[in-house]
Design a protein that fits this description.
There is one protein chain. The chain is globular, with a radius of gyration of 17 Å. Helices cover 73% and strands 0% of the residues. The two termini are 13 Å apart. The chain has one domain. The N terminus is likely disordered. α1 runs antiparallel to α2, α3 runs antiparallel to α4 and α4 runs antiparallel to α5. The chain is mainly alpha-helical and 207 residues long.
């Protein structure tokens, strides 16, 4: 730790955690893109990624494993952020941990139209995921703006938080109008925030 107590020197576990945040989101995106392409009847505009893991879907197990790996990578990045910025990073790290745990939950609790209780639970977990992804860059922006070496990431975090808020407002408006393209919105929202996670992890890896 530095004399000011703000940072802890990177260790092998910290580098592995950051490395997972750099590698896993792009690999997960490529895997889910391929699964969507190969799945019959898949509609990325209207159907969410969860539809690819419904009971009976041809690649459901692969989708579940991908989402779980993605959740673990978010947990790792949250831990790495908290460890590197020992002071004041708890909020953003916790939000990342919540989002990661929610992704694992989505992988475990499938979307199943034949079981209403599971549908409600699945959607509730998805809402927790969206909330965690919205809060993580917002809280990081406030923390990182006081770190001169992290100014670029602070600006990126603030931009991501702003775009996420705009997408959430757009979702509510389109949902009220009954014309929300759920698949496209989900992919845009989650993809935006996972890009932020990847860039944050890359910065942690270089720290």
């Amino acid at each position: 730790m530095t004399p000011g107590g703000a940072r802890i020197a990177p260790s092998l576990p910290s580098r592995l955690a950051a490395g997972s945040g750099v590698a896993v989101p792009p690999l997960a995106a490529a895997t889910l893109l391929a699964v969507g392409w190969l799945s019959p009847g898949a509609d990325p505009l209207r159907r969410t990624v969860s539809r690819l893991a419904e009971p009976g879907a041809p690649y459901a197990a692969l989708v579940d494993l991908t989402l779980a790996a993605l959740g673990l990578s978010l947990l790792a990045v949250g831990w790495g952020l908290r460890r590197h910025l020992a002071t004041g990073a708890t909020g953003s790290a916790l939000a990342l941990a919540v989002a990661g745990a929610a992704l694992i939950g989505v992988a475990l609790v499938h979307r199943d139209p034949t079981r209403p209780a599971f549908m409600v639970l699945h959607r509730s977990i998805a809402l927790v995921l969206f909330a965690g992804l919205a809060l993580a860059p917002l809280l990081a922006a406030g923390r990182l703006r006081i770190e001169p070496a992290w100014h670029g990431v602070a600006v990126l975090s603030a931009a991501t938080a702003g775009l996420s808020s705009a997408l959430l407002v757009a979702a509510l408006a389109l949902l009220a109008a009954g014309d929300l393209p759920a698949g496209a919105w989900e992919r845009a929202y989650v993809g935006l925030n996972l890009l932020w996670v990847t860039l944050l992890a890359l910065r942690l890896l270089r720290a």
